[in-house]
Amino acid sequence: MNAKEFLDTNILVYAFDLSAGPKRVIAINLIERLSRERTGCASVQVLQEFYVTMTKKLSMPPEDAARQIERLGHWNIHRPGVADVLTACKTHREYPVSFWDAMVVQSASRLGCRILWSEDLSDGGKWHSVTVLNPFAQAST
What we know:
Blueprint: E1 5-7, H1 9-16, H2 22-37, E2 40-43, H3 44-57, H4 62-72, E3 76-78, H5 82-94, H6 99-110, E4 115-117, E5 126-127, E6 130-133
Parallel strand pairs: 1-2, 1-4, 2-3, 4-6
Antiparallel strand pairs: 5-6
């Protein structure tokens, strides 16, 4: 059985950003693999951020963004509770990470993901049992 893998918002956005060049191809391939293997994970926060970014910054029609969220809704989706928010608050206070990134890490951890794909957090960083990987790090070297 394949391990669960969590996608941060930026990876999802790159898959739909026609100006993202090689990052778009990498993001699409990653999303397709996670969908095929049924190991893809996200959170309500990631879906919300995706919607806002796509409709405001990339001018995707709201109904198209909603359709993509519906497709992603078949993945494992974490719905944070108060305990998750408090844990993210603690992480934010104790480590040099934004509150929103701490929430992403908490969601990945709560879903039992071993990998968190993100461009925003340090490649190779460990948070709880989650390892952050930047899918674009290899392409840029």
